[in-house]
Amino acid sequence: xxxxxxxxxxxxxxxxxxxxxxxxxxxxxxxxxxxxxxxxxxxxxxxxxxxxxxxxxxxxxxxxxxxxxxxxxxxxxxxxxxxxxxxxxxxxxxxxxxxxxxxxxxxxxxxxxxxxxxxxxxxxxxxxxxxxxxxxxxxxxxxxxxxxxxxxxxxxxxxxxxxxxxxxxxxxxxxxxxxxxxxxxxxxxxxxxxxxxxxxxxxxxxxxxxxxxxxxxxxxxxxxxxxxxxxxxxxxxxxxxxxxxxxxxxxxxxxxxxxxxxxxxxxxxxxxxxxxxxxxxxxxxxxxxxxxxxxxxxxxxxxxxxxxxxxxxxxxxxxxxxxxxxxxxxxxxxxxxxxxxxxxxxxxxxxxxxxxxxxxxxxxxxxxxxxxxxxxxxxxxxxxxx
Length: 386
What we know:
alpha+beta, 3 domains, D-amino Acid Aminotransferase, Chain A, domain 1, five-stranded antiparallel beta sheet, Rossmann fold, Dna Ligase, domain 1
């Protein structure tokens, strides 16, 4: 029998639409000879839907899903059970709505409330195999401040940075925060700490631009990170696949045609059909020594956050130094283009990610999760409140 795979897309995230693209790419390229995929669509209001019409990306463009219906997630025997919402009428002349059992969850999601470990936590506590790491790796991979602290503790090179809370900036700490920021020296890159796809990011060349960039970033997140901007820098990206110490690195890529940093429009909107090759160079035009350094760092980053499956690590290269920028624990389009040149097709990449999620799941199941010493009875009356 084919294994049922639940591909989760959407969610309450500014990267909702990007997730739909990734999820549909997974659905179209998954090996349907061994897997039975089903799209699980989380709307922007947080409601879950299933239906065959969700399997066609054109329906998302016109926002029309003829057979889609709301479901509630439940769990039984290590499977995700999608129950029809109880408010759906199932009378004599009405359509019969199905209940679905999902054996492995494949989250094709990006951004907050999804990729940040929120979904992983729900499946992990209910014992359902879920691709792409854990609550820990997902949360660290989303929060750029915590991420950099982990990189620092692992002796990985990063650019100078500082960070602050929105409440402090809007409260009595504004002057102190600005003083600390300006110690880095202009130009600066200002980012929300918990977003992806370059949403809310701005470059600041002076004080006025800094204030503007901070206001924009604070509209997206309560936590803001400010980094020293490296001038004349090249972005080099590399993916890693595996689990624990069994890791392999992909080819390196260099996005081209951008000036200071890749915006949301650079990544998604301005890209035309058939134009993908003009937006990136694979393999990147770098020396073998630099390539090896980046691949080694990429594996160390992957291990540092205890990742699983497939992740893309982004680097900055100024011609002399390599800096780790960030890790994307569920990269857009799964970063499949980084693997094709290494002989791994999109279909094979998806299959390996699913297999790695099952290995990770088996490792968790091997742990003792109870410690039975009959503690409550041994306490006797000493545990009573007087």
